[in-house]
Amino acid sequence: MTSGAMSQVACTIHGIMSRLLGVLLLVAGANCMYASNSAVVDLRPNNFDNLVLNSDHIWVVEFYAPWCGHCQQLTPEYDKAATALKGVVKVGAVNADEHKSLGSKYGVRGFPTIKIFGLDKKPEDYNGPRSAVGIVDAALNAASQKVRKVLGGKTSGGESKSKDSKDVIELTDENFDKTVLNSEDMWLVEFYAPWCGHCKNLAPEWATAATELKGKVKLGALDATVNTLKASKYEIKGYPTIKFFAPGKKDADSMQDYDGGRTSGDIVNWALEKLAENIPAPEVVQITSEKKLRAACEDKPICVVSVLPHILDCQSDCRNGYLKTLSTLGEKYKKKMWGWVWAEAGAQPHIEDALEIGGFGYPALAAVNIKKMKYSLLKGSFSYDGINEFLRDLSYGRGGTAPLKGAQLPVIIETTPWDGKDAEPPQEEEIDLSDVNLDDKDEL
Known about the structure:
16 strands, alpha/beta, single chain
């Protein structure tokens, strides 16, 4: 064979090998969605127990399939979260299409599925946004719970309650109907057994959730081994069992099963979602006193403050139109649990000054966070679409904020509530000229 022919054969073989190597790399890349230098740890059946279950670390674990489009979309965000959490929380991923035994063991039925393995290594489903920020927030919440447990010490012995369970209401067969069924409040009730290990693990989470939900949702606990009448009534067959009682009027059958997670964050989020579903649209309250303002806004994450034109400039039909728009938006955003208030132009000058509203004319609107003493001013149109766009951006974390002028709640002037009627324009005083002699002249 001539040297030229050998060279051609060598080039052909080199080309085939290059293409084959490329195919192998593509296959490898398809089976493992994260690079070898990624902060995401590749988890398999032969290392899962040792790395995850037998470690003291909190783990966030994604179960994925390489062919899954949603998994591919999640990859950069999950990678980013793993990098941000490095040294704080461990982040791993399981190719559950290849390692079906792990997916089956943890009940994975769809991709991607993310689970958080906390202090007790009992996995909790992550159902938050598929973004780096959402995953990081959930991971840090799990780490925070671990620290609190270690700091406070786990419950032990026959005690099912946490040391700090002051906001958990103790329920019995005798007080259950009066305390729960006869109240207008929303309730979550835990049925437990003192010897139950899962109940002991839940106790500090339940206590933390009760404190965080105080004033919104009531949390109770009933020892089902002692109070057997209620345990039998609600067909309690395992421990702990959590039942939900909606706000408003209740009867003996006013109960649903709780189907959320077992961390304090899960319990709080589930309860607030249910509360929001059951609450009526907020009232748009006129600011006539400091008490009215505080009742409507003080414990709310945001208070929507409107200043409407003076009644002489905008009579009842006009004003009611504005109030209807605000009420409709209050219904739309009721799950946010915001406060909604309004004042007449000029009636609360300190509010207008603090929010720097005067320069934009009336009607005007601002969203205020009383706890942080910050606000954001509507600069678009005071219409359903204009306000909706402003509030939507605000709920997504977009839009600028400014510190409340004076860094404290403005002075509120006590005023008379609007009676819902038109205003009579002021009458000009008539001057009687009958006694005036227009022919009289004053001489200097």
